[in-house]
Amino acid sequence: MKIPPIRKAAALAIAATLVVAGCSSGEDESSKPELGAGGKVIIDTLAPADADTNLDTNPVTKLMSDKFKIQFRWQTTTFDAGPAKEKRQIALASGDYPDLFMLIPWVDGFSQAEVLKLGKQGVAVPLEQLIKDNAPNIQKALDSNKTLKEMSTAPDGHIYALPQWSDCFHCSYPDKLWINTAWLKKLHLDMPKTTDELRAVLEAFKTKDPNGNGKADEIPMTTDVQDSHLIEYLMGAFAYPPAGANNGGVGLLTLNGDKVTTPVITPEWREGLKYINSLVKDGLIDKAAFTQNAEALQATGNNPDAVMVGSAPLLHPGIFVQLGSKDGRDKQYDAAPPLTGPSGKSFSGLNYPSSSTFTFMLTNKASKEAQVAAIKMLDYIYTTEGTEIAVMGPEGVGWNKPGPDDIALDQSIKPLYKRTPGTQAPKNLSWDAMAQYNLTLDYRNAQVVPADIYSEDGYERRLFEATKLYEGHEDKAQFFPTVSVWTDPAVSGEMATLKTNLESYVAQGQLAFITGSKNLDTDWDAFVQGLDGVGLKRYLELNQQAYDKYKAGQ
To answer: Which range is the signal sequence, renumbered to this chain (predicted)?
Structure first.
């Protein structure tokens, strides 16, 4: 049930007082462990669970419980990000929070600012000594992965929480365009490689009846507001588009040498918006793309009367069309390469690492015994055996060892595991997304995936092969290493507010220019000046200070 706004505001308003109370009670409670049946240490754990998952009866829960003498007392949320985050925030504000948070990055992971705040309040327990004493596999991962160590270690040297590390090749290049190649073939068109060629293709999709039903009902390009990479994909032909966190959102920061900058006020960005606006004005981009949700987009993509969608700028085609469609329409979509613009630019944004939030946090409510048991459990998940079981479930049910004819996703390496397809695997089999802590690129690419990229089981290979089109189009010189640059705790609140306000202002302004409610010739200067009014100069200044400290190794 959603908390009414007044109650929610009141709860958050007294958060500081209650958290202090929570700290003191936590210190008393943590002096000795609470034990359950068989002497197992009880760990109150907050975690998301989808409709098919019951963590109390899950086989991975039983394995971890027996192996590490833990009795989990679960508090679960759904996979709906809004209510999930609200539940953990209310728990923290009330002081009635769990011993352990085990979250999922794209559902309810903690932000860097939240981790800093909870660490400074004493709610989050520093993990670095626990890791050193009890978790050799986690320590090895931190020592061997520079980015993981940088993103895990706060400016004061403490590790207050851990992120998941999941090297997702296709997630690292989210700014893709999926285009209907069956329509291209029917109309005798080549895959577009430039902005002019894309315009010509979209015009043909609109006017030449590629779905063959005799109606002008084709939608040349569409997307939804939750998942869209429309601006980023098309902007790459004009300027380097910084990817926002978690495969989407507004990215604001780039580098010019060691100077922190933003591209959204540049003449090149303005030209990119002009191009996008011209496509909208000519009816080549569906206006619903800027208002509809994911369900509405799926309904369009799955229209039973005819194939309607010509192209969609999204992370993957399963967002807008049902995979395994009876008429095979999902197989019609292939990735278009990054476009080349009038000045020869051809960029693709980089989202690395693809998970940037924190998901494992022990609190001061946890006894020393609970802390040790929990970190040992996580250390097991960092092993290959622990990863296989926690992510996929028991061998022979959730996964199998490769056969002699099986091939890895990356065919240059030896296959390690063959996951049971989701349609064949039992429900409630594993912890899956909750346990993806040490999925290195080599490990992920060692999964067995069929050679047929258009089969449902070969979908991961389809995304892997598509992403090769974008690899190398990122500009690492302009890439701002967001996860490695920690904000000074003294200004973290100010930084968070500035970021929220600026992202909202930029998103609204760009939408106005694209849809034509504002004019790029007459309103652009006011848009740029308005950014200073919502704190752009201060935001860049604070990020510059943080980046300078990062570069200096402080």
So the answer is: 1-21
Query: What residues are paired with 77 via a beta bridge?
Result: 48
pLDDT of 31 reads: 63
CA dist 179 and 296 (Å) reads: 19
User: Is the model's pLDDT at 19 over the cut of 70?
Assistant: no
- What confidence score (pLDDT) does residue 21 get? 39
Residue 88 is classified by DSSP as: H
SS3 of residue 508 by DSSP: helix
Could you tell me if 12 and 4 are in contact, meaning their C-beta atoms sit under 8 angstroms apart? no
Q: 415 to each of 167, 365, 400, 404, 445, how far by Cα in Å?
A: 17, 42, 11, 10, 8
Report whether pLDDT(246) > 80.
Answer: no
Q: Are 259 and 204 in contact (CB under 8 A)?
A: no
Element at 76 (helix H, strand E): strand 70-77
Which of 117-121, 305-309, 486-490 is the most confident on average?
305-309
pLDDT in tens, 55-85: 999 999 999 999 999 999 999 999 988 899 9
Three-state secondary structure along 16-58?
HHHHHHHHHHHHHHCCCCCECHHHCEEEEEEEECCCCCCCCCC
Q: 44 vs 23, 31, 97, 375, CA distance in Å?
A: 16, 16, 9, 14
CA angle 109, 113, 118 (to 5 degrees): 80
Give me the DSSP letters along 123-153.
Answer: -BPP-HHHHHHH-HHHHHHHHH-HHHHHHHS
- Residue indicated by tokens 């208002």: 291
Residue 75 backbone phi and psi in degrees, to 5: -120, 115
pLDDT band at residue 24 using 50, 70 and 90 as cut-offs: very low
Indicate the pTM of the whole model. Answer: 0.87
Amino acid at 228: S
Longest dimension (CA), the chain: 75
Q: What is the pLDDT of residue 526?
A: 97
Contact yes or no for 359/162 (Cβ under 8 A): yes
Please state, in angstroms and rounded to a whole number, the distance separating the CA atoms of residues 45 and 103.
10
198, 282 contact by CB (below 8 A): no
SS3 425: coil
More confident site: 493 or 201 = 201
Pairing of strands 333-336, 358-362: unpaired
Give the integer Cα–Cα distance in Å for 546 and 497.
16
Q: Which amino acid is at 528?
A: V
Spatial distance between the Cα atoms of 427 and 353, rounded to a whole number of angstroms: 29
